[in-house]
What we know:
Layout: H1 2-22, H2 24-29, E1 41-43, H3 49-57, E2 64-66, E3 70-73, E4 79-82, E5 86-88, E6 95-98, E7 108-113, E8 121-123, E9 126-128, E10 138-143, E11 147-152, E12 155-157, E13 162-167, E14 173-177, E15 180-182, E16 194-199, E17 215-218, E18 221-223, E19 227-232, E20 236-240, E21 243-247, E22 254-258, E23 270-274, E24 277-281, E25 288-294, E26 298-302, E27 305-306, E28 310-316, E29 336-339, E30 346-348, E31 360-361
Parallel strand pairs: 1-2, 2-5, 3-6, 4-7, 5-8, 6-9, 7-10, 8-11, 9-12, 10-13, 11-14, 12-15, 13-16, 14-17, 15-18, 16-19, 17-20, 18-21, 20-23, 21-24, 22-25, 23-26, 24-27, 25-28, 26-29, 28-30, 29-31
Amino acid sequence: MPTILCILKSRALAAVTSILLTSVSAAAMAGSAIVPASNAIITAASCSYPAVQAASAAAAIGHTILIPKGTCDWGANQLTLPGGVSIKGAGRDLTILKRTAAVPVNTYLVRFDCWNGKRATFSDMTLEGAMISTSQDRGLGLINGCIDFKVFNAKFTKFAFAGVEVRGGAKQRGVIFKNQFIDNYNPGIGTLGYGVVVFGDGTWPALELGSANAVFVESNYMIGNRHHIASNNGSRYVFRYNAAVATDATINYSQADAHGLSSSPLGSRSWEIYGNSFSARLSGTAKAYAGIGIRGGDGTIFNNSFSSNIKNPILLQLEFGAICGASYIQNQIREAHVWSNVGGAITALCPISIALNREYFTYARPNYKIYPYPHPLREM
């Protein structure tokens, strides 16, 4: 008899657990105090902002918010999530969230605030900007030092500032892969427009190439962004195995960019750019300005290919406003290794300050090894 009672209790407990887990979505939307079990999926009632916000309010660390298919206008709203929560759509072209109103500076459609040091994960949907000339709208924000984040199988398009922005945190690191970044540039604003932009925390760490301590942007398709990637303020990024394309709208800009000392307290710290294809899809005979344009920091550029309609495949220069030949220019290029690029002619715009075999070298960096590809986080 005791054995039979034990079996009955186990079956009853399993049934109750099943009922609780399958009712999480409905309970969350109804404002219930029920907290889903760890690693639960909370499904929003629709892709509308109120429905997704309600689902996020029910989420805790370890939960995934699932947004169903549909096209939804989020107006001027921003969804803010803590690190440790994942958000997932029904598919890149199935869940579409649109910004349609002007917003204040530093406003995103979706913002992860990783002050808690937890991982942020975003996937399987499209974020679309408003393209309003008075609004610097942004798609996804990974703010305050997101660690080991993942962004994948998504599309970011028509944002005046950036599709994805990574900002702050001495240990910011993660991977952005298998996404589409399309036409993140508004000519009405002109000086902005990035597929991905990386801002560091304003510190200047020792050079650490080939390590996990960087923002990895790999295996993406990027077209029509003013810069497909840009960086500043002690940032560290790896840009690898991407298809990068310039258009008539972005013909006058470099596709991969790194600032020197400019609008932030510091310039870019490091960059590793390899295995990418740079091309230009233009209607006329004019050439795109540059494939890679580096204005500060140190790093490696190798095994990239460049189409013949790019005027300056690899451009090494000072930050705008710096005086060529000055005795000291903060955060300028000091150690760049550039080698084995197909069609990758190098142009140094100020050879007095950026000299061959002194600031840049046309051979492989000694003892340099790339960080494993695909990035190990992609399998987690």
